[in-house]
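Workshop exercise sheet. Pairs work together: one partner reads the sequence aloud, the other fills in the structure field after running the prediction. Swap roles for the next sheet.
Pair: D.N. / O.F.
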Amino acid sequence: MRDTVQAEVTMSFVVSQDLSFRIPVELAYDSEDPYAVEITFNLPGDAPVTWAFARELLLDGLSRPTGEGDVHITPVPGGSTSDVFIRLQVGGERALFRVGAAPLVAFLDRTDRLVPFGAERDAVDPVGDLDAVLNRILAHDRYAG
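Structure field:
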């Protein structure tokens, strides 16, 4: 059974230390892909941009710097855990976003109620998917020949 969790939050797109823009961002989670979350950025004048990455990365980034590669999440320095930075990178291009931790915690809590952390493997049914594929192949072979 496919279930989803969605939330809308406001993030600050940090251009420089003195300049940032508030933008609406959509968070999404789908139980059919239990390891991942998606963040869709709705930048004015541009098509929406969606990033998918590990749900656990988002959870870990609330309390400590985490991420290797294109996505890095870290609490804002200074001892406060009220905000986090999310840095996205493609090649040499980087974008930095600042968001309150509270809406992320609420979103992750809702995903955890749907598929508990650590139980993602149980939520995936590779045997059921394989059975469906094999049945389609066998049905096609029976009618093709």
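Discussion prompt: Helices lie at 55-61, 101-114, 120-123, 126-144. What would you look at next?
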